């Protein structure tokens, strides 16, 4: 039998190194981990769960409408994290406004932000999806936080992580001291430490971008991808491979494992809708940038470091260029030249 370090043990042991630690952070991470296990279970059941629910038509026995997995995941994250006294409020990609806790629950010192099920277009086709989360400190003396209290730069994140629901379920976490990887042991029901201090290789020959948007990109991105496609004969002097899962969690996970560059750049298609790119700063770009930087990679909008951006609103979208340092710096330099 393999007796590994559990996620809980890992966090408690790290907390012991800080004299002021109260256990609240461990409590919060435990609840996030429990929520991710529940979501993982739902994702794993996939069509089976739907068939069972579907027997009575589109409504279940209580007369409630059958809910999609991304809505259920949002409910699980809220239900698991609202009661424990660790958070003051939450913000979710699935909610229009921030989520203030019901009166009966004690207020904690953290703000929790999440994308409950990222990669939604992959749910129905049984391709990896994930949950992304970011933890901020609630400003001192605030009892009932407002959306403005969430608008903190990415550099202030206390922790960030994601759960990947793939062939196995993994939790990847940073508290600003390296990136660590835990794998869910389904027999024991615990996340077990499987890799400490994950690092992204500096050099890469693999890019990830949705090529169907090519005609909408700006010149620096067109130039870079064109150079990648020219391979050894082009100015970059190396052949590139390409991947696009359309699940950012899977994309970042691959980059943590073997390097690569991921881009969802600014494009005229999203600009026409009044958005700067597709991905959300608070639920996707900031937590992933924290993880990538902690693993030795880089993350920019093409023009500036994502973690240093001053957020304007909770659902703000930003262009994202992240991954192996050398290539991210190259793409950023192309933008800044123009
Ligand atoms: P979602 O949060 O609605 O699932 O959207 C985010 C996802 C990312 O995981 C992924 O990188 C991107 O959208 C894929 O977009 P596209 O379908 O345009 O390729
Ligand atoms: Mg998402």
From TrEMBL:
Subcellular location: Cytoplasm
Enzyme nomenclature, EC number: 3.1.3.11
Residues that hold substrate according to the record: 118-121, 210, 278
Residue ranges annotated for the Fructose-1-6-bisphosphatase class I N-terminal domain, each copy included: 6-196
Highest rank taxon of the organism: Bacteria
Reactions mediated catalytically: beta-D-fructose 1,6-bisphosphate + H2O = beta-D-fructose 6-phosphate + phosphate
Entry binding sites for Mg(2+) 2: 115, 118, 284
Known pathway: Carbohydrate biosynthesis
Record's keyword annotation contains Membrane: no
Cellular component GO terms held in the UniProt record: cytosol
GO biological process, one term: fructose 1,6-bisphosphate metabolic process
Domain Fructose-1-6-bisphosphatase class 1 C-terminal: 200-335
Residues that coordinate or bind Mg(2+) 1: 93, 115, 117
Cofactor remark: Binds 2 magnesium ions per subunit.
Annotated HAMAP family: FBPase_class1 (MF_01855)
Family membership: Belongs to the FBPase class 1 family.
Protein's name in the database: Fructose-1,6-bisphosphatase class 1
Organism expressing this protein natively: Thiohalospira halophila DSM 15071
